[in-house]
Amino acid sequence: MRIAVTGTHRVGKSTLLEELGDRLVGYQVVEEPYHLLEEEGYEFASPPSLEDFLEQLRRSMELLEDAEAARDVLFDRCPIDFLGYLLTHEDSDSFDPEEWLARVRSTLQTLDLVVFVPIEERDRIPLSAHEDPEMRATVDEKLAWMLLDDPWELGVEVLTVHGSTSARVTQVLERLERG
């Protein structure tokens, strides 16, 4: 299966992905676009600019397209993540999601499952002092709206996970067992 783990920052996506990678023998784990771009020398603004999120969106779509033939892949993030950040960015007025939706939709169709890790009542990962909790909550709400309400008819299966890392892993594995 081709699975993407999605959610705002500091919700435990990468930890979940690492645990799933350990449990799902034979699965390839694809790092999130931010880290891949950084390794290639891309310099992100602090805080990230609209162009930084657009670059991550582009890379995320490329990763899904490049790995299209590969089965058994775990992706750290997918295009939905970056739409969430773009739609909530302070410069979001200059971003038109309609320009991107056809390609986003087609790349998401290469996925069998999107695992959504929302912010929970009790945060499992503390935020650093420089992080904006309101922006993070707004991104989380936007992701939930796009994935669960599906206003753009993205047509992807979404599994929302909750609880500890081991509980989340169990929820994903149980879903995979059902086929």
From TrEMBL:
Superkingdom of origin organism: Bacteria
Annotated organism of origin: Hyalangium minutum
Domain NadR/Ttd14 AAA: start-end pairs: 2-167
Name of the molecule in the record: NadR/Ttd14 AAA domain-containing protein
